[in-house]
Design brief:
379 residues, alpha/beta, Rossmann fold, 8-stranded mixed sheet, 8 strands, 56% helix
Length: 379
């Protein structure tokens, strides 16, 4: 006997005023952006003051919300229904601009200018592995601080980056802070921190080797950058710890998004386990693009048997072809159901919402409303 799966009550989650942050996470290509936008729109139209932060480079969110272009500044979604007193803003993470803001807020104008103009910083802030995930969390922290101070928003919805692994979002702050505080960086700082006698023979050997690999000019640029950034090391670690702590509070709710596919649900399982291990509040699982029910008692085996009989009598039978299509669809539904049941067996306490595949691409507010209704309608 199959154990009943607890249902994710989306409207209760959105209407709960103690919920200040919703983080949509999961592997790439499972509909995180659409889910984030649909949740944000539904919350706004139910009376919440919402900002949705996306990291989707395809810019689908801007198009679906009728905004010509999104950037690092929240912009109002003018066609959202605000009759209930809510509002909706949307923005897209500008990774480098957010990194620049961190530097500018933590360093003196002179030191900030020195850092921002350094070629090594430009490369780090634009393309270093994990920077996008770290800056997504940094921007989340900024938005939350502003919301608390000014009352601009009472709900922030975050669409996490399309990473190879869903866990990258949680690991990025510590990884970036660890890099900035790493042994090599400290080694490069040694000449700037102490007197010449600290430049031991061993350190000279390492520096000479790096000069050969990187070139003298590049090594000097790296050392200049690291020396300028040295005073910010503690700030990076502190901000990472603060954001991580924010994600652990009761005011945050994680929604894990998956597709009814083995890899996506396996990634979702890893994320659920990680959230549990880190004491982070998990609201539930959303399974996107599920195949609609066949709404018939005809099994796949019965359909195949009937199709074989018809093919034997008439190889061009249209009915036989339709029966074959029906059998394929029923098997797909059964396979997806089996995958969901296997996930539920391993995680029996995770509330779940299943969203059927839409007839077409979601490209406007009406499409997002339809997704929001499907999320809420789990009867």
């Amino acid at each position: 006997m199959t154990t009943p799966v607890p249902v994710l009550d989306v409207d209760a989650l959105l209407d709960d005023r103690t919920t200040e942050i919703i983080v949509c996470c999961g592997s790439g290509g499972v509909g995180k952006t659409t889910t984030s936008a649909a949740l944000a729109l539904r919350a706004a139209e139910r009376g919440r003051k919402v900002v949705v932060l996306t990291i989707d480079p395809a810019r689908r969110l801007a198009q679906s919300m009728g905004i010509e272009q999104l950037d690092n500044t929240p912009r109002p979604v003018v066609d959202a229904d605000t009759a209930a007193g809510g509002s909706l803003d949307a923005m897209m993470l500008d990774m480098k601009r957010t990194f620049d803001e961190v530097v500018e807020s933590q360093a003196s104008p002179e030191k900030a200018k020195q850092i921002l103009e350094n070629p090594f910083y430009v490369a780090l802030s634009s393309s270093f592995a994990g920077t996008q995930e770290y800056m997504a969390m940094e921007k989340l922290g900024q938005l939350h601080r502003e919301a608390v101070a000014r009352g601009t928003y009472d709900l922030i919805v975050v669409d996490t980056p399309p990473s190879r692994s869903a866990l990258d979002f949680l690991d990025a702050p510590e990884r970036l802070a660890g890099f900035l505080d790493g042994r090599l960086i400290r080694l490069l700082l040694a000449p700037a921190r102490g007197p010449a006698r600290l430049m031991s023979v061993g350190l000279s050997v390492v520096t000479n080797a790096l000069t050969k690999v990187l070139g003298g000019q590049m090594l000097r640029e790296v050392q200049t950058f690291v020396a300028a950034l040295d005073t910010l090391f503690g700030s990076f670690r502190q901000r990472a710890e603060q954001t991580f702590a924010l994600l652990q509070t009761d005011g945050t709710a994680f929604v894990v998004v998956a597709a009814p596919e083995p890899d996506a649900l396996r990634e979702a399982a890893y994320f659920v386990d990680r959230l549990t291990d880190d004491d982070m509040p998990l609201a539930g699982l959303v399974v996107n693009r599920a195949s609609p029910s066949a709404r018939t008692a005809l099994s796949a085996e019965e359909a195949i048997t009937a199709a074989d009989r018809l093919h034997a009598a008439d190889s061009s039978s249209l009915t036989a072809g339709l029966l074959q299509l029906h059998a394929d669809r029923v098997r797909l539904i059964e396979r997806e159901q089996h995958l969901r049941e296997r996930f539920a067996a391993a995680h029996p306490r995770v509330p779940t919402a299943v969203v059927p595949a839409m007839a077409g691409d979601v490209h406007d507010l009406e499409g997002l409303r339809a997704v929001g209704e499907a999320l809420a309608d789990q009867g």
